[in-house]
Amino acid sequence: MNSKPRTKETPLSMDDFLKGVWEENPVFVMLLGMCPVLAVTNSTINALAMGVATTFVLVCSSILISLLRHSIPKQVRIATYIIIIATFVTIVDYVIQAISLDLYNALGAFIQLIVVNCIILSRAESYASKNRISKSVVSALGMGLGFTIALLCLGTVREILGAGTLLGFPLFGTNFEPWVVMILPPGGFFVLGSWLLIFALIKQRKTQHETQHKTLHKIKIEESSHGH
Amino acid sequence: MTQAIPTEQPNQNNSAIIRTLTLIATISGLLVVLVVDATQPLIAENQRIAIEQAIFQVIPNATQWREYRLSKDKLIPVEQADNGISIYIGFNQQGSMTGIAAQAAAQGYADTIRLLYGYNQDCECITGIKIIKSAETPGLGDKIFKDLDFITNFNALDAKLNAKQSALENSIVTVKHGKKTEPWQIDAITGATVSSRAVGKALNKSAQYLLPKLVVHLSQIIKLEVEEQ
Predict the structure, then answer these.
(1) What's the domain count of chain A?
(2) Which residues of chain B neighbour A65 with C-beta distances below 8 Å?
(3) pTM score, two decimals?
């Protein structure tokens, strides 16, 4: 796919995929879709199921929207996107019910709420409606993976601190007193804030490192030119 | 997002809009119908398994069960009934009745909570509950089926009928956590009061309605089962 781009568009590259995972991570960088991020991440399994369900809807709706991108009139594009997204959410809803009622009960209303997840709508509006199918799918997969990773980051930390378990298995002895607030909504904000802090620190380090590198380089050049 | 909407040729545009929306709606409808059709048997099977497992959980000592329907104040086997309220009767190995199970429902915090409860005619008490469907808040309301202390409320919850057998002697009520003093009271969960109350309400409503009607038929069922054996 990479070797023969058929149109004038830029060729498909790894960047399209990685952007969603790291550089434009929907949760840690763009702060999108906060409702499911804070609400369902009280356990690892819920976070994983939510991430996979959202990725499925994201990829499928991107395919269909990208396929129909030339025939959707501007005035009704949002309405069209919502219908398409809602269709795939309904499909996910039924499929999860068919797979496991326990999982369905655990996720509760949040499956239906994928319809109004702004990550999916923003992908549809800003990417799938302007790019060919292969690029849209790769970008959607990247975004979905980035979202799933972010949910897992929150879910595992909250489950370990708030319930003392990981994927339902107890990690600590019986005298571990779970930090219940971590499972409750405030805990979601605490953990999200901490992760954002970590990400900001990493970014700051990186830019500092780069500028230091550049200035060092400059000084070296100047020194060598002075020497001559 | 802020681009001006073109206003020229409104007629042509309108027909394009209608065409697109019709196409999308058709595709959506088709996809949803296909998926519903494909998953319906699996979902029904899952629900049946969930109820079957629940029956054995709420009726202790039951090794088999049979479904009956209560319609027009008569209790008939499900094969001969078209409608009515489902009543599951559990039997032990010897074929004698060990308890009955029925469904109850009430409005919870998020959505309707549906549950199955077991009733034993000898101790005249509720012997267990199992939540079948709920959308209660994860971490708070969902304690109604995760909190073991709450579940022990229903190991022997008093549901005696009054002398006239027209209603319960004492209504089943949910009380604040730690305030339970009577065997017909349910000790609520702190932080999940609404959900706890909903469970109490569902049980009370269903027991008040069903038990007076059922009591007449239960002796008959024991005989039927013995004859069959």
Answers:
(1) 1
(2) none
(3) 0.71
